Amino acid sequence: xxxxxxxxxxxxxxxxxxxxxxxxxxxxxxxxxxxxxxxxxxxxxxxxxxxxxxxxxxxxxxxxxxxxxxxxxxxxxxxxxxxxxxxxxxxxxxxxxxxxxxxxxxxxxxxxxxxxxxxxxxxxxxxxxxxxxxxxxxxxxxxxxxx
Length: 147
What we know:
This protein is mostly helical. It is built from seven helices and no strands.
C-alpha cells in the first residue's frame, strides 16, 4: 500500500518500478563493517538495517538528534559549529564528492548513486575544489604516453 505524505513513504527506488533493485559494489573494508553491524544488531523483521527498539522505523527526530550528538563528538568544535555535514543526508553528498575527487569515472559514480551523469555533475561537481593540479598531472601523464 502506498503511504504518500506520511513521514516514511513505503516506496521503491525513486523514479523506478517497485520491484527494481540497484546493485552497488562496495570496497571490502566497508563490507566488513556492514557484516560486523549485521552480526551485532541483525535486521528488522522486514529487513531494514536500522530500526527502533520495538523493531519499527526509526523516527527522523531520533536520527537528527543522534546525528547532532555524533557531530559534536567527531568534529573539531569550529567545524561542528559550521553547517558542514549538518544533516545525515549530507553523507551522500560527501561520498559522491569523495568518489569524484578520487578520480572514479562519473558514469560509475552516477550509476552507483542512482543518478544521471548530468544530475551528478550539476549537483556535485561544485564540490571538487583544488583539483587543478591533479587534473593537470593526469593530462600531462596521458600526453606523455603519445610522445
